[in-house]
Amino acid sequence: MLIELYDEAELLIGRQPTAAAASRGRTSAFPQATTAAEFPAAVHDALALDGLLTTEEKEVRRRVRAFAESEIAPIITEYWERADFPFELVPKMRSLNIGGGTIKGNGCAGLSITGAAMATLELARVDASCATFYLVHTFLAMLTIELMGSEEQKRSLLPGMASKELAGCWALTEPSNGSDASALTCSATKVSGGWRLDGQKRWIGNGTWADVVVVFARSSVDNQVNAFVVRKGAPGFTATKIDNKIALRCVQNADMLFERCFVPDSARLPGVASFSDTNKVLAISRIMVSWLPVGMAMGAYDMAARYLRERHQFGAPLASFQLMQEKLARMLGNVQAMFLMAWRLTKLAEAGAMSHEQASLVKAWNTLRGREVVALAREVLGGNGVQADFHVAKQFCDMEAIYTYEGTYEVNVLVAGRGATGISAIKPASKANQRAKQQVQA
Questions:
Q1: Closest Cα partner for 104 from 88, 115, 89?
Q2: How many CB atoms lie within 10 A of CB 150?
Q3: Could you give the 3-state DSSP secondary structure of residue 424?
Q4: Using only C-alpha atoms, what is the Rg of the chain?
Q5: Are 148 and 108 in contact (CB under 8 A)?
Q6: Torsion angle (degrees, nearest 10) of CA 41, 27, 250, 337
Q7: Orientation of helix 113-126 relative to helix 128-135, angle to 10°
Q8: DSSP H helix total and E strand total for the chain
Q9: How many angstroms separate the CA atoms of 132 and 124, rounded?
Q10: Which of 81, 129, 328, 379 is paired with 210 by a 20 to 30 Å CA distance?
Q11: Are 197 and 219 in contact (CB under 8 A)?
């Protein structure tokens, strides 16, 4: 077990900043504006969108916001610079009661999809790496076990994962197969009493330290994709940190190698019989990924708005200049639209009416608009916009990873395009597709 659990309960929730905390965002080298160590007030809700939430969802948002601002914001820049993960925060998250997200039972919070989205949103507003940890652990690793694991697997794994005693990751992507994930080559050979895994995985978030690794591999029995639980330290399994990233630097992404790694029959997830079963998990995780850029854009806007009020040039605050106000208004409009896109997608999912094409449309559009917001925030902060201490530089870099993971922008817009036209353009055109295109053109 990675970290001994302890519970700080309500001490972490909603506490008021101390005098020391109020001054920690100022430096002697640049006292003219406050750094993200003292996180800015939330001023991004121009259309009172908080009114769309239930009382319970607002309470989740309040708890996570208070935690992120008081516990994550003061320390995260140093971890981001060192490309380390703030492991000491993991057990503290227990008091937030968001473990397991939407999963019910086995110690999980049983949140609505919107409630879980608010937790993701507020973590991302302060730090995308912490939000990504929560997303991978909860909506990929845990959700796969919940939806496709046996009752024994759920009972033995989910309670410890919900309490953060066990950390999880999700190993699908391979060096040779990124966007073309269904062509994965990691193999699962049936042997006496279990399976032998051989192959490589890449870009696995939480991969260097996860206790529970959900691995997808192609079965020797029927050539279909199956899923297996591999525990940390299993013989034949190694995970190596991917260094030199410019985005999500706190996330410990791993290259994974499986060499004759044996797992017992009890480690196979019985609900995964083909690659298409991954869509059951990705349907929910893609919703959460659609909320990530919303939170990041909110944080970037909040930081830019405070900076423009504090920073003076030519005898006046930067907020008084027309060019700055135009950029700020453009950012603010994007934030409202991004929230509404993600909110509508979430409501469709809660009603059981969401399609993969809709999810891809929102993920692609929100990350594209999120890119614009963080770029504008970087502009209005001038030179301080390239220093991680003032938040927007970190969000600017991290947004590049969000734009790409859980389906690149290009793949997601092509899925959305397939929904709009009925024609798939993801792979080289088949003769059937060529005939369909000719009919459309005619």
A1: 115
A2: 14
A3: coil
A4: 22
A5: no
A6: 30
A7: 150
A8: 14, 11
A9: 8
A10: 81
A11: no
> Cα(first)–Cα(last) distance of the chain, in Å?
63
Residue 150 amino acid letter? S
- Which string of DSSP letters, residue by residue, matches 94-124? GGG--TTTT-EETTEE---HHHHHHHHHHHH
Q: From residue 394, how far is each of 89, 260, 262, 276, 360 by CA, in Å?
A: 19, 40, 40, 35, 25
Assigned token pair, 35:
């750094």
Q: Would you give the DSSP letter of residue 17? A: P
Amino acid at 391: H
Residue 341 near residue 286 (C-beta atoms within 8 A) = no
d(CA 382, CA 291): 27
Nearest to 369 by CA among 407, 409, 334: 334
Paired tokens of 31: 């006292």
Compute the distance between CA of residue 99 and CA of residue 281 in angstroms, rounded to an integer.
17
Tally of CB atoms within 10 A around 190: 13
Q: Tokens 């925030």 label which residue?
A: 377
Q: Compute the distance between CA of residue 224 and CA of residue 222 in angstroms, rounded to an integer.
A: 5
Give the global pTM: 0.90
Q: What is the pLDDT along the chain (442 residues), one digit of tens a residue?
A: 444 333 332 332 233 333 333 357 888 889 999 999 999 999 999 999 999 999 999 999 999 999 999 999 999 999 999 999 999 999 999 999 999 999 999 999 999 999 999 999 999 999 999 999 999 999 999 999 999 999 999 999 999 999 999 999 999 999 988 788 888 999 999 999 999 999 999 999 999 999 999 999 999 999 999 999 999 999 999 999 999 999 999 999 999 999 999 999 999 999 999 999 998 898 899 999 999 999 999 999 999 999 999 999 999 999 999 999 999 999 999 999 999 999 999 999 999 999 999 999 999 999 999 999 999 999 999 999 999 999 999 999 999 999 999 889 999 999 999 999 999 998 776 655 566 556 655 5
Structure-token pair, residue 268: 């196979």
Cα–Cα distance for residue pair 139/339, rounded to 1 Å = 20
Q: Name residue, tokens 């934030």.
A: 335
Contact 290, 362 (CB under 8 A): yes
